[in-house]
Amino acid sequence: xxxxxxxxxxxxxxxxxxxxxxxxxxxxxxxxxxxxxxxxxxxxxxxxxxxxxxxxxxxxxxxxxxxxxxxxxxxxxxxxxxxxxxxxxxxxxxxxxxxxxxxxxxxxxxxxxxxxxxxxxxxxxxxxxxxxxxxxxxxxxxxxxxxxxxxxxxxxxxxxxxxxxxxxxxxxxxxxxxxxxxxxxxxxxxxxxxxxxxxxxxxxxxxxxxxxxxxxxxxxxxxxxxxxxxxxxxxxxxxxxxxxxxxxxxxxxxxxxxxxxxxxxxxxxxxxxxxxxxxxxxxxxxxxxxxxxxxxxxxxxxxxxxxxx
Length: 309
Hints:
The protein is an alpha/beta fold. The protein has helices at residues 18-27, 46-55, 65-76, 109-115, 124-138, 161-168, 187-193, 230-240, 292-307; strands at residues 8-13, 33-36, 58-61, 84-87, 99-100, 118-120, 149-155, 175-177, 201-207, 213-220, 247-249, 269-276, 281-288. It has a seven-stranded mixed beta sheet. A six-stranded parallel beta sheet has the order 2-1-3-4-6-5, sandwiched between helices. The longest helix is centred in the last third of the chain and has 16 residues, at 292-307. The chain starts with 7 loop residues before the first strand and ends with a helix. 44% of the residues are buried.
């Protein structure tokens, strides 16, 4: 008699939002899972949610931070009957007891996600920034106390419902910097998982297109230990991501102009080193879909690891 593998059940709490819809759409193409839903009229009913939490293998939280914390309290109340959790909010990204859901972070991170009970899905900007900085810190090419600056530009879908509505209505500016208080909510994870001791400066921006992201880190090469060349930085990145399914190190584009939408609708992350050896300067660049590897794509990657799909 053939062995029958039972489908694993998932509940997306907040499935009507941008990230939730993206996860559900990607899971429609994933064998071995059943996505369950609550009657829309009861989606905020704590009893209905608690009962759903108790009946599934995995819960994905696509909620504002405070609501995500409340959901985790409900799950905690279930004790051993509680499901495993992926939190796509920023509520638990540096919290004790949570595993950071960037499987490419280090050689053992994918296994950590695979066995974790609680996984925090990374932010979109930190995915690019950490992917560029962490391998260089680990390789000793970038000191932990180096004054790192991370710049990013995203499509407006990353700004949530109100920003999407403003751009769709034509009332938002064509481009704007934000987070200029230097207190952006992505900074704690960017700092912690880049393995930096000095808090980086992070300057995000948004432009008038729907999705796609570029994250860049400028460097003065002669200020780094050993005064490396751009090729040394590229080699360290390639060594770190060797064999990776989703993260690749690609050559700089010949014309020095890089657009942000080239990886839309994928879970890919491309890294490049742009440099001018004459002036001993370099810019590290990451390109990704802020709704893909920066959100729902990363969540599905973590779901597949956690459920053995």
